[in-house]
Recover the amino acids of this structure.
């Protein structure tokens, strides 16, 4: 199966080699273990193609720009008109491209947040705390060129974890958050938790935190902390 590709520069480098004469041969593309990046790259290409389609094919646009730039080099009204058209064309294209890129960014954030919520649930966070914690943790995510999330530490450095090239995954992030916010994590009394089964299964472990730590919590985290019987100490 082949699909038309207007501009291969929007694809990851490993995928660009499979584009020939304006078409991507999907049959020749090796199936990656994680197809999230491929899906995002193709979506980005579709967005770029929609922007280009409003102006014509890339070659036609480049030719038109070259003609206007040549006319703008002169003097008089003709040069002024050419420059005005060139500026208008540039502004319109940049505006639509920015809009398309904004939609792509929003899509990546939405997908990443949904995936992070799922990982928080797996890590044992109580349901009422998941939305707020996920929203706060989104500030620790950036996105690679292929659309996959890149997890950062709380001070903005790449987080080390179990992912490709030793980078952290959303699972790693969820586990770190669970360790740092035990008041919002239920205790199922499983092996390794430090509790015997049935002692406090299904509920968060009672915790104590300092006043400064409590003040730094969000409203939802405070509610979750109070619900577990947590105690604030000075």
């Amino acid at each position: 199966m082949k699909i038309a590709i207007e501009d291969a520069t929007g694809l990851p480098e490993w995928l660009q080699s499979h584009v020939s004469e304006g078409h991507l041969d999907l049959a020749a593309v090796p199936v990656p273990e994680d197809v999230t990046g491929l899906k995002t790259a193709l979506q980005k290409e579709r967005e770029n193609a929609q922007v280009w389609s409003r102006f014509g094919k890339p070659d036609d646009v480049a030719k038109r720009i070259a003609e206007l730039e040549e006319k703008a080099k002169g003097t008089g009204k003709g040069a002024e008109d050419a420059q005005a058209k060139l500026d208008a064309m540039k502004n319109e294209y940049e505006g639509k491209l920015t809009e398309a890129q904004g939609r792509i960014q929003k899509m990546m954030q939405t997908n990443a947040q949904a995936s992070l919520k799922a990982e928080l649930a797996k890590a044992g966070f109580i349901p009422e705390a998941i939305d707020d914690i996920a929203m706060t943790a989104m500030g620790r995510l950036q996105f690679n060129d292929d659309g996959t999330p890149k997890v950062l530490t709380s001070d903005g450095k790449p987080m080390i974890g179990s992912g490709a090239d030793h980078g952290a995954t959303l699972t790693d992030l969820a586990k770190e958050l669970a360790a740092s916010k035990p008041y919002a994590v239920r205790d199922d009394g499983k092996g390794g938790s430090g509790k015997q089964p049935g002692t406090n299964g299904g509920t968060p472990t009672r915790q104590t935190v300092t006043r400064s730590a409590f003040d730094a919590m969000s409203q939802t985290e405070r509610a979750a902390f109070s619900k577990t019987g947590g105690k604030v100490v000075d």
Q: What stands out?
A: Helices lie at 13-16, 36-53, 58-72, 77-122, 127-137, 170-180, 211-216, 219-227. The radius of gyration is 26 Å. The longest strand covers residues 2-4.
